[in-house]
């Protein structure tokens, strides 16, 4: 090949790889990393600077994700602008994004600006966006949570967490708000929404004081709870919040004093009460004394080019079923040598109403001294208990440019040997950093980055200036093994060695990318012998109709049920329509009539690839829904499927404006051997107004009621 032609080919290759959506090969030092996606999220033609990011990924379909950031409208002029919240929405796994502005009108008033966004999602795939709303002409302040019931496409129904309007000379000013949702299946408060924030006012002597506040909303509540104070009075900043596996609520923040400290409080009853006085006489208690906090006033060092720095802590809890279940992790940035900033993590034992055991700090970044790392965000992958920390890092460019990095711990936060660069190009933090928001303060590069760790993947969202302005970028880090191992196949790779399902309901999480295909694997309903097949075996003890789904898996898969012997199987049921689309009726789901004592083989195969499998067997399953009128004139929603426990099932209609439970549910047909039914009729007053002709809605079933065992929402249109 001529050298000139080879050079042109290489130039074309590297030019294409500099596009905003690209896959980067892993570093040789980390063979477990399979790929990194590095994509610009904010519009290329928008000159306004953006920062302070947050991100959430749907548990029902990982292709759907929502991000948010602050944007300075008019800030592209390089001087100042009005602060708003920008919302980003993707339905293709982060490869492309739509953008919109969060509205400022609420039932209480129309606000002047917005800031401090945070995004969360519940187990049903409903997204929430919390934001600080302020006025441009006075000191009115508020925190609202907006809801999206259409997979993050639109947000509305602003619900106040707190607001202070017209307080005059002593306003109660909210700041640094953050929200989360309790998504632990074992929590009695699952799907509860929590918010924390700082509140600043004046004490009896006219001095400013700041405390940490908290409020919550249960799934069926119409409003947030009364506000609780969870810190002592002082100068409190940057709260973070998480939940535990059994309904615990944990929060951490920075207290500005001498020394500056990280403070902590805990609840074991869903945020109703916190530490008793004998455990925490000052309400909260200290988990770390800073050697060199980066927060004003008098930070330990000034990071070159950064007009804003802080050491605000970020908290998360291990809700997986692994060895470290219940362990709490707190990350922060600090300068211990007054030369550079590093990232540290401490872990806490579950307090259970008492003082927790607190570990020594562990350094996360694995570079040498002299390079800054700051603005960490920590998340625990709830599928495997791995601890992941994202942060800005300056090791690659001699303290000039920033890159986005992620570190991962496979041993419960004891070590972080893997530090992986995610961004494809460095950022100059000075670009647009001097632009002032509505309050006149320079925006710097913000205070936060966004991170979700789920099913062996890390999703990152951060502010990036490689395009000579502050844009928002998304990164995906996908590990070759969700368990952190080196591959080598999976135990149930062969039809001859299926994983036994001993009791229902059953669920399993498995990385199938190291699974193989056998010559005698059957042809599925996709029309071919698919790849990366894994097997499960089930021998029911009673006659019953059983539902199976793979809705939360992140790859295109085919789900099949067979009888017979390997190599000579008879297919009973098959579904292969989960293609990663945003609509919830596009999934792999089957029901089949099972006979007691008969062995059934369940095969899950990939259409050319494997991925993170989420399999559920024996959960309530909806495969049909319609609207009809009975002979007596009563109008019903009728669903068919499997797993509807007799006299113990709830039917819920989901629309853009929220969820509505049907007040009357009838169980139709013969009772199965396990006590379940396969058909339900549900109704309520004014049902025809709830589900109008030609309008779409979704329905899901919970059975037993209060168990958290939810069917996949089923999409239907009333004729």
Structural write-up:
Among the domains are: 299-331 and 353-479, no CATH class; 499-617, Jelly Rolls (Sandwich), CATH 2.60.120; 621-717, Immunoglobulin-like (Sandwich). The model is unreliable at 1-32, 481-488 and 578-586 (pLDDT under 50). The strands form eleven sheets. The chain has a five-stranded antiparallel beta sheet, with no helix packed on it. Strands 30-32-37-34-35 form a five-stranded mixed beta sheet, with no helix packed on it. Strands 3-4-5-6 form a four-stranded antiparallel beta sheet, with no helix packed on it. 3% of the residues lie in helices and 44% in strands. A hairpin with a 2-residue loop joins strand 41 and strand 42. The N and C termini lie far apart (64 Å). With 719 residues, the protein is mainly beta.
Strand order of the largest sheet: 1-2-29-28-27
Average residue pLDDT? 88
Gyration radius over CA: 26 Å
| Chain oligomer state | single chain
Uncertain parts = 1-32, 481-488, 578-586
Count every helix, treating DSSP H or I runs of 4 or more residues as helices.
2
Q: Count the strands?
A: 46
How much of the sequence is in beta strands? 35-45%
Structural class: mainly beta
Largest sheet: 5 strands, antiparallel
Helix coverage percent: under 10%
Distance between the termini: 64 Å
Shape: globular
Q: What are the SSEs and their pairings?
A:
Elements: H1 3-16, E1 22-24, E2 33-40, E3 50-57, E4 65-73, E5 82-90, E6 98-101, E7 113-121, E8 127-134, E9 141-148, E10 156-164, E11 173-181, E12 193-202, E13 208-217, E14 228-229, E15 236-243, E16 249-255, E17 261-267, E18 285-289, E19 314-317, E20 328-334, E21 342-348, E22 362-363, E23 373-380, E24 387-393, E25 403-409, E26 418-421, E27 450-454, E28 457-464, E29 471-479, E30 499-501, E31 506-511, E32 531-538, E33 544-549, E34 557-565, E35 568-575, E36 589-594, E37 600-606, E38 612-617, E39 621-629, E40 635-645, E41 650-655, E42 658-661, E43 664-668, E44 676-683, H2 687-690, E45 696-702, E46 714-717
Parallel strand pairs: 30-32
Antiparallel strand pairs: 1-2, 2-29, 3-4, 4-5, 5-6, 7-8, 8-9, 9-10, 11-12, 12-13, 13-14, 15-16, 16-17, 17-18, 19-20, 20-21, 21-22, 23-24, 24-25, 25-26, 27-28, 28-29, 31-38, 32-37, 33-36, 33-38, 34-35, 34-37, 39-40, 40-44, 41-42, 41-45, 43-44, 45-46
């Amino acid at each position: 090949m001529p050298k000139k032609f080879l050079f042109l080919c290489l130039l074309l290759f590297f030019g294409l790889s500099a596009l905003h959506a690209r896959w980067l090969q892993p570093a040789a030092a980390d063979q477990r990393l399979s790929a990194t996606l590095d994509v610009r999220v904010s519009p290329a033609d928008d000159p306004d600077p953006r920062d302070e990011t947050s991100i959430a990924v749907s548990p029902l379909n990982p292709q759907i994700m929502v991000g948010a950031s602050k944007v300075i409208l008019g800030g592209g002029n390089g001087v100042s602008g009005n602060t708003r919240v920008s919302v980003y929405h993707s339905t293709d796994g982060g490869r492309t994004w739509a953008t919109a502005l969060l509205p400022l009108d609420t039932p209480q008033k129309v606000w002047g600006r917005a800031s401090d966004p945070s995004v969360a999602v519940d187990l049903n795939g409903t997204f929430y966006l919390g934001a600080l709303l302020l006025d441009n002409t006075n000191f009115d302040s508020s925190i609202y949570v907006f809801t999206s019931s259409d997979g993050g496409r639109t947000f509305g129904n602003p619900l106040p967490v707190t607001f202070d309007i017209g307080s005059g000379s002593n306003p109660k000013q909210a700041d640094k708000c953050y929200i989360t949702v309790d998504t632990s299946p074992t929590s009695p408060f699952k799907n509860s929404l929590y918010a924390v924030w700082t509140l600043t006012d004046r004490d009896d002597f006219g001095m400013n004081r700041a405390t940490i506040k908290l409020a919550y909303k249960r799934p069926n509540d119409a409003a947030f709870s009364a506000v609780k104070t969870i810190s002592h009075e002082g100068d409190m900043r940057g709260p973070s919040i998480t939940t535990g596996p059994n309904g615990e609520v944990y929060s951490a923040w920075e207290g500005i004093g001498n020394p500056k400290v990280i403070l902590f409080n805990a609840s074991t009853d869903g945020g109703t009460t916190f530490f008793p006085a004998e455990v925490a006489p000052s309400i909260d208690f200290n988990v770390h004394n800073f050697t060199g906090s980066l927060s004003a006033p008098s930070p330990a060092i000034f990071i070159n080019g950064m007009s804003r720095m802080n050491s605000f802590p970020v908290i998360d809890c291990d809700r997986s079923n692994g060895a470290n279940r219940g362990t709490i992790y707190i990350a922060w940035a600090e300068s211990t040598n007054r030369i550079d900033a590093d990232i540290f993590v401490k872990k806490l034992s579950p307090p259970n109403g008492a003082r927790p055991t607190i570990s020594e700090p562990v350094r996360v970044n694995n570079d040498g001294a002299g390079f800054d790392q700051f603005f960490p965000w920590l998340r625990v992958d709830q599928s495997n208990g791995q601890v992941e920390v994202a942060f800005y890092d300056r090791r690659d460019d001699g303290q000039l440019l920033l890159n986005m990095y992620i570190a991962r711990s496979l041993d419960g936060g004891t070590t972080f040997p893997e530090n992986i660069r995610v961004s494809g190009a460095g950022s100059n933090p000075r670009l647009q950093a001097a632009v002032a928001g509505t309050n006149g303060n320079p925006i710097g590069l913000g205070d936060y980055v966004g991170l979700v760790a789920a099913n062996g993947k890390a999703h990152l969202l951060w502010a990036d200036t490689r395009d000579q302005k502050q844009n928002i970028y998304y990164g995906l880090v996908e590990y070759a093994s969700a368990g952190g191992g080196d591959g080598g196949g999976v135990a149930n790779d062969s039809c001859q060695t299926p994983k036994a399902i001993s009791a229902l309901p059953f669920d399993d999480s498995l990385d199938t990318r190291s699974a193989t295909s056998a010559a005698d694997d059957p042809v599925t309903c996709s029309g071919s012998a698919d790849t990366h097949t894994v097997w499960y075996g089930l021998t029911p003890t009673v006659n019953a109709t059983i539902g199976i789904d793979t809705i939360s898996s992140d790859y295109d898969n085919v789900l099949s049920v067979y009888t017979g012997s390997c190599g000579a199987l008879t297919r009973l049921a098959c579904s292969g329509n989960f293609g990663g689309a945003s609509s919830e009726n596009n999934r792999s789901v089957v029901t089949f009539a099972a006979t007691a004592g008969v062995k059934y083989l369940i095969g899950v195969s990939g259409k050319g690839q494997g991925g993170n499998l989420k399999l559920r067997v024996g959960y309530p399953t909806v495969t049909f829904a319609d609207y009809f009128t009975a002979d007596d004139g009563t109008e019903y929603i009728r669903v068919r499927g499997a797993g509807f426990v007799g006299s113990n099932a709830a039917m819920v209609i989901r629309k853009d404006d929220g969820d509505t439970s049907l007040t009357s549910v009838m169980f139709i047909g013969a009772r199965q051997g396990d006590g379940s039914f396969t058909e339900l009729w549900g109704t309520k007053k004014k049902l025809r107004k709830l589900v109008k002709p030609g309008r779409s809605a979704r329905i899901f079933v919970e059975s037993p009621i209060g168990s958290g065992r939810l069917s996949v929402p089923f999409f239907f249109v009333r004729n």
